[in-house]
């Protein structure tokens, strides 16, 4: 079983997987770091099956390949950071009714994406101590559901992130919220006000341009009714025209048959393969 260490960084309790084993290797061994972001109504521990699968790559690592570390943290208002339980629910979800669902959800997605970049700024010092140069070869981000939404945004906004794996995530947050509003039969003026819509549109603009040189693996469930894959279609269609790499190799959209808004073995298997190709096997920063 892979080691895990809890490290306080910028007010967060990070869990770092594989660090103990890495520090036992020769100093300066090349390393890659993957952030694994959990979904709404979950916490960082829910990412452990994925984390364990990713860290198994280290067991078969060749001497010239990168070691992989995986980092998790609780997203805003989740897990150890929970302040207001209602804010994590939708407009109408079970016994809960959250009138601020769209605003709360966006704030959590945006904050999570920003946190990844803030951690990249300082994390090497916390993990490896004083360094004369950076030893992290590749930074990556993987996320499930809400974490998947954040993975899109983090990779788009930070050029240091060269690998992204959004799982049942969406690249068009505004369309997702608009569809949920229609399904709930609620007025946009109250629950999705125009100034907020304009803000989201601006923040998410040119996502295709920002991701056109990223090794992006999008995984969606064919039967997912909560985060419908069709809202990734505009990005996929655009990337087919402008991505600098080859579809199916440098970037990929995988719609998994018969799967809803849930984990499945194919998601873990595909993520492990992608991580090996672009974070372990590839020994240079993998931005195209």
UniProtKB/TrEMBL annotation:
Domain Peptidase S9 prolyl oligopeptidase catalytic residue range list: 140-283
Transmembrane segments: none
Top-rank taxon, per record: Eukaryota
Protein name: Peptidase S9 prolyl oligopeptidase catalytic domain-containing protein
Source species of the chain: Mucor flavus
């Amino acid at each position: 079983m892979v080691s895990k260490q809890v490290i306080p960084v910028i007010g967060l309790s990070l869990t770092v997987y594989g660090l103990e084993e890495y520090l036992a290797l020769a100093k300066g061994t090349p390393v890659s770091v993957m952030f694994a972001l959990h979904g709404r109504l979950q916490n960082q521990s829910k990412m452990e099956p994925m984390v364990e699968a990713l860290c198994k790559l280290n067991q078969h690592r060749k001497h010239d390949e990168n070691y992989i570390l995986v980092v998790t943290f609780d997203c805003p208002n989740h897990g150890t950071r929970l302040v207001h339980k209602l804010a994590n629910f939708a407009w109408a979800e079970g016994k809960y009714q959250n009138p601020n669902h769209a605003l709360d959800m966006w704030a959590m997605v945006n904050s999570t994406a920003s946190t990844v970049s803030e951690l990249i700024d300082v994390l090497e010092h916390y993990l490896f101590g004083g360094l004369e140069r950076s030893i992290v070869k590749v930074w990556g981000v993987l996320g499930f559901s809400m974490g998947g939404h954040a993975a899109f945004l983090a990779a788009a906004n930070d050029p240091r992130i060269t690998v992204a794996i959004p799982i049942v995530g969406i690249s068009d947050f505004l369309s997702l919220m608009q569809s949920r509003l229609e399904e709930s039969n609620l007025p946009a003026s109250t629950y999705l006000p125009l100034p907020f819509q304009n803000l989201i549109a601006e923040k998410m603009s040119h996502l295709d341009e920002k991701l056109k040189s990223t090794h992006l693996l999008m995984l969606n469930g064919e039967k997912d009714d909560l985060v419908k894959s069709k809202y990734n279609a505009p990005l996929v269609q655009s990337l087919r025209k402008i991505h600098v790499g080859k579809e199916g190799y440098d970037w990929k959209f995988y719609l998994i048959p018969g799967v809803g808004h849930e984990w499945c073995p194919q998601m873990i298997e595909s993520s492990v393969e992608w991580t090996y190709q672009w974070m372990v096997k590839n020994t240079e920063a993998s931005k195209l």
